[in-house]
Batch of 3 targets.
Target 1
Amino acid sequence: MTRIDGPDQVRARLEATGYLVDEGLAVACFLALRLARPIFCEGDAGVGKTALAAALAEALDAPLIRLQCHEGIDASQALYDWDFPRQLLHLRAAEAAGITDAGRLESELYDRRFLIARPLLRALETQPSVLLVDEIDRADDEFEAFLLELLSEYAVTIPELGTLRAESPPVVVLTSNRTREVHDALKRRCLYHWFDHPGFGRELAIVRRRLPGVSARLAEQVTTLVQALREQDLVKPPGVAETIDWTQALDALGASEVDAESAVRTLGSVLKYREDVERGRGLDFAALLGVSTEVR
């Protein structure tokens, strides 16, 4: 894995991938690398938590291995499972060949070649790697406890094969949209960073970096409007991802700047709930667009 010697180098490498970080996040990422500690990223959807893992993987020249959490996820989906169809085929082939030794057949059936490595096991076996455990808040308490144990030792015991341990721990990024509180035990194991919505200047810089081909005026106006939308009482305030989506949508329609009509017509690119779209349609976009960004 590419060696990084300090927070400034972390920032430079991440920015080279197009991911802009502030000082606090650069320090957190450096400590995660130096201390082999997971980094727990919490905040609203669309503020760059998942993108951080992808940027780290690119900056470190390491593969990104992603585990998408959901309600009911268990170890067989996250860690490993046995390839039962292949085991059955092997058993039938052995029987056709006249092999009747039960002990031999059992040992062959539970060979490593029949083990399906899910994301967690792949991360332990891949050096170097970046493991993204996305939306851990969607998993249940039992899976959270299982994950805590695995991240404490970076090892797993498979009854048929023994203990498999990472030669060097993967870089681990956990994300949470805070749909529920994650237990303190897991948070204590991690370095913590809260992802807030960026200010105007940083958000505009992110949009310009991600969409270098759009007009500067368009990027500036969309960022201004998104900042204003976040001040409304919305069900789901737009994140940076939605700012980028809105800019792309307007650019795809051939716009080099925003007017009130085009803003209303493309609200579905930035607002994702009916109540929010209705509130957005009631805003005076012409007035919002008349606000000079120089005062920001």
Target 2
Amino acid sequence: MAITSVKPRANAKTDATTSTSGSKVYRPYSNWFYLPTAVIYGVLFLVPTFASLYFSLTRWSLFDSKFVGLDNFKLFFQEPALVKGFTNTLIYAVVTSGSKVVLGLLLAVLLTSQIVARGYLRSVVFFPVLVSTIGVGLTFTVLMNPERGLINGALSVVGINGPGWLTDPKWALLSVAAVDVWKGVGLATLIYIAGIVSIPREYIEAARVDGAGSWETFRRIVLPLSRPATVTVIILSLIGGLRSFDLIWAMTQGGPGFTSDVIASVIYKQYQAGFYGLSTAGNVVLFVTVTAIVLPLSRFLNRKEVEM
């Protein structure tokens, strides 16, 4: 029986590109497959971004706009509450992200150990992540009421006079940050659980054979090998803290005074006052601030991870 070779049909094309070495690299899909994603990315991100950059250089309303150059940025940086907003934003981001890293890691270690009702406790820890941020803010506003709130009521039972959590300038920002940590630590815990359960059991068993206790196992095995989870939690928490608005607005609206204002709440107040171009310039400043902080930090942490 004769064996005949099968030649590819002339109209059957395979996408190929030439690599730097001169050889052809064959791809299973044509570049046209990337077009829908590129269109969606352009419409939902690139177009609004460049539109914001343009409108930040104008004084605009719904039906009219006037080009004013960098005047909006000059006015924005002369805003009295801006310096306070920048300071509060950095404090809020550092406190919330640091707390989520520490508490998330500790909870993950606990919830990956052999404890009773482990699955149920994981659900309880993650549940606040699923609740509406506005709902959480309104609920804790009631709980933190200095006169009729449940928290101060419980403290008075043991003889402690609770502060004005949301009305005292010394406590307002930190109180909102504590609620943010309560709501977001479940996601950090979930990320850490995924990182810990991916550690090969042979490492932990070898450490126990060598006589390492729980602390040594945690310090020398769990903590270093869960570094990718730590990097993820830091970056996500830091971005969320720098962009935070909804929880702060629901609980304090930046008050009392400007003591709990962040950049996003300053921008929103400008928008409420009808300074649309000024608020758009503030959004550009916020975007640049988040990028300038998060991008170098992400590169630094990922480089350290590769070096290890």
Target 3
Amino acid sequence: MQAHEIDYHIYGEEMQYVEIELDPQEIVIAEAGSFMMMDNGIKMETIFGDGSQQQSGIFDKLLSAGKRVLTGESLFMTAYINQNSTKSKACFASPYPGKIVPIDLTQFGGKFICQKDSFLCAAKGVAVGIEFSKKLGRGLFGGEGFIMQKIEGDGMAFVHSGGTLAKKELASGEILKVDTGCIVGFTKEVDYDIEFIGGIKNSLFGGEGLFYATLRGPGTVYVQSLPFSRLADRIIASAPKSGGSGREEGSLLGGLGRMIDGDNRF
């Protein structure tokens, strides 16, 4: 597998985008909805799956696309082909506040495992597939189910994390315990499992769920401070319950209500 060699630059702080520089006939693949802007002369083409097996038969193409459905993604991805005779640029934006993480697969043994919705874009030739959990506990309680995404190849890929990003280098046998939703991804050597928090008070009143993830080294782990599911839950919880914008929001009555409940929705 030989992926296209792309150059890139990441812009921004909280709302980032990645600018990909393509040589003539170079291609970058991206998730639907991540496109931001591109130079004139770059052609967009919708493809089945990740496009890493475009020369294979129809069955292999359908299988590649079907794997993406299992991870909750679209059947299709978009390829951006530089048809100019000079270098051109295409940009792809993060879907919510956080950081874009560049993954050089040659430095991670050709494979990186990540959350099923974190992939943003990659060089043509990088395969985006599925990683099945072989452990029942992880599948039932891991937050990501039995399936995570795996990115394979020898090129550059880009994944997105929410909030602030933490990169942890685990030594052999070293264990890191993480909220299941806060995992962005990890290298293939890391052993990933689920552990019960334990204790009646922790389980009933802790507010952190019943399980956390245990990641055992050696390997590299990326952790996010703000998973999108947590952000969405807070937005839903703070939305007006009456189905409107709540006319009492700025009134004395509304203020008294917030004093009583402490406005502790955040």
